[in-house]
Specification:
Length: 395
């Protein structure tokens, strides 16, 4: 029986993971659930899955969670220490940690899981973007198991040779092709993007996701972050990762081998598929997802990304080329920019402008510890907020 901690249980990944777990309660037991502030949903999840512990990062939400569970006579213990996420992720009774917290907030608890040798099902791509070298080193030193949940990286995992997972150099791989839907503005002109509203940007054509990742998909920054993530996961240089626009989101990624073979993983766009594979790896279990109907699908289209229209993807490649703290700066600036766009403090096109400004303004620095990573993250966020304030004053 695997005991599981879900960091971010009320988000899209967390909810889908619980749906899969519900199908296999003889194999998996929920040990702890954590969220940010969606206390009503977290209460429902605790009531249904009866975890030993629960925690909401938002203090007011956490207090309400205590009241809610007390009223239900729940045996779930609500933690209230600021280090609760790290404690749960490294708990001795935990086998598996699903890291589904959005953004930089997932870095410390995911590192705690790595340092404790856990099986980590990683959806928090920011951990690898911000601190890839440190995180991979921690995974190796503690003999932890790292399995990606992102549909693209999970697809790559599925088509790599079974005996040499997460290894590029000795597998005869020529390149990796990461597919991208192109988001809601794939066919929009550059001029039209000047007037995009948050409401329009949140209408993803294929996937139901949280606000932050949906905006990242609209700017194609999400694919840029996934390129960085792939470099660390599969020990592959950025020059051997190609992004391909595939609007149907049926092929989730491909691997091209030196003999000319290209292997792809196909499936309906449903996150329960990669979650089920990650949970049961290297075996397979029922996910609740219907099989792919190729006749109904009819066609699969592909095109190259337009880096002029979607500069965020190019900025991610630039950050990889610069190295050191550049990806950390990229991620921090992007998180601030996305929040500002959602609050209508900046325009859609200014997201990339703000990120590029921060990448040029923050000095290069070697990341030798998590503390250094967090310092760079904080410095970048303050700079980004100053940029926003300045542009609001002059607009």
């Amino acid at each position: 029986m695997e005991t599981i901690v879900i960091l971010g249980s009320t988000g899209s990944i967390g909810c889908n993971a619980l749906q899969v777990i519900k199908l296999h309660q003889d194999k998996y037991k929920v040990f702890a659930l954590t969220a940010n502030g969606n206390v009503d949903l977290l209460t429902e999840q605790c009531s249904e899955f009866e975890p030993q512990f629960a925690f909401a990062l938002n203090r007011e939400a956490n207090q309400q969670l205590k009241k809610n569970l007390l009223a239900l006579n729940s045996k779930t213990i609500v933690l209230d220490d600021e280090n609760s996420l790290d404690w749960l992720a490294s708990h001795k009774e935990t086998n598996t940690v699903i890291s589904a917290i959005v953004g930089a907030a997932g870095l410390k608890p995911t590192m705690a899981a790595a340092n404790s040798g856990k099986k980590i099902l990683l959806a928090n791509k920011e951990t690898l973007v911000m601190a890839g070298e440190l995180f991979v080193k921690a995974v190796k030193q503690s003999n932890a198991t790292l399995i990606p949940i992102d549909s693209e990286h999970n697809a790559i995992l599925q088509v790599l040779p079974q005996s040499k997972k997460l290894n590029y150099k000795s597998n005869g791989i020529r390149k990796i092709l990461l597919t991208a839907s192109g988001g809601p503005f794939r066919t929009s002109t550059k001029e039209e993007l000047k007037h995009v509203t948050p409401k329009e940007a949140l209408r993803h054509p294929n996937w139901i996701m949280g606000k932050k990742i949906t905006i990242d998909s609209a700017t194609m920054m999400n694919k840029g972050l996934e390129v960085i993530e792939a470099c660390w996961l599969f020990d592959i240089p950025a020059s051997d990762i190609e992004v391909v626009i595939h609007p149907q989101s049926i092929i989730h990624s491909l691997v091209e081998y030196v003999d000319g073979s290209t292997l792809a993983q196909l499936g309906n766009p449903d996150m329960r598929t990669p979650i089920a594979y990650a949970l049961s790896h290297p075996e397979r279990i029922e996910s609740g997802v219907l099989g792919l109907d190729l006749i109904k699908t009819k066609r699969l289209d592909f095109e190259a990304p337009d880096l002029d229209k979607f500069p965020c993807l190019g900025l991610a490649y630039k950050a990889l080329h610069i190295g050191n703290n550049a990806p950390t700066i990229l991620n921090a600036a992007n998180e601030v920019a996305v929040e500002a766009f959602l609050n209508e403090s900046i325009t859609f096109n200014q997201i990339a402008e703000l990120i590029e400004f921060c990448m040029d303004a923050v000095e290069p620095q070697i990341l030798d510890s998590i503390e250094t990573v967090l310092e760079v993250d904080s410095k970048t966020r303050h700079l980004a907020l100053s940029w926003i304030d300045c542009h609001n004053l002059t607009s």
